[in-house]
Structure prediction request, 167 residues.
Amino acid sequence: MLILKNTVRFVFLILLQVLILNRIHFLGYINPYLYIYFLLMLPFATPRWLLLILAFFLGLGVDIFSNTPGMHAAASLAVAFIRPYLIKRISPAEEFDPRARPSIVINGLRWFITYSLILITIHHLLLFYIEIFRFSEFFQTFFRAVLSIVFTMILILISEHLLYRKK
Prediction:
């Protein structure tokens, strides 16, 4: 059941990203990248090798439909690589249920925002700087990345609230 749920989530987020969100460019600066939410939501006990494979195919799926050769795959792989270390670093001493996934309901708003914001920032900065690949537009790119980070974080918090309310 968990595999089916994650497969549907994987396909849905890629399709949402490439069919709708890639066409959104608020003020010429803001580009939401909600597909990263898939990596954020995977259970704590997801093996690292599986996390890296899923991240690669998630990024590759967006790259194929967005005509961005490897940019999203590289940024997604960086997030997948750092995620286990980040969870260990910011988590309290007591262990989480390995089958549980990071969420506001289970981990609290402060923990979830810290966790999400760090990974989204890593993803977006890598993605935007790989895209531009020059330092002549460093500050403009940084500004675009920050605005997109904020917008993506808002979309993730809204999604988290709508999909996973306390029962």
